[in-house]
Write the structure tokens for this entry.
Amino acid sequence: MAEYTYEQLKGMTVAQLREIAQGITHDALEGFSVWHKDHLLPVLCKVLSIPTHHIAAGEEKARIKAAIKKLKTRRAECAKAGDEAQMAAVRHQLHLLKHRLRNMAEQAA
């Protein structure tokens, strides 16, 4: 079995990842032939014992973006209600989350 890095696997097409999975017999890869790349990549990394700290950053990004979306809805509600103090607090939270996203992007580059 060839040695791969996360970056190498991430750069491959789903067809290439499926070829690699085809040569591996593991219960976690059962039904891999219909999986999308987003599902196949982390499972392959787990089976091949490849560190996936990059995936965790992606999950963190999704969590932050979901929080930003909720805060934007809350900000609109505060604006509609005319609650300036609460709106300022929500804007501050938005600022902090967006700053964290920018820092994550800089670290990834």
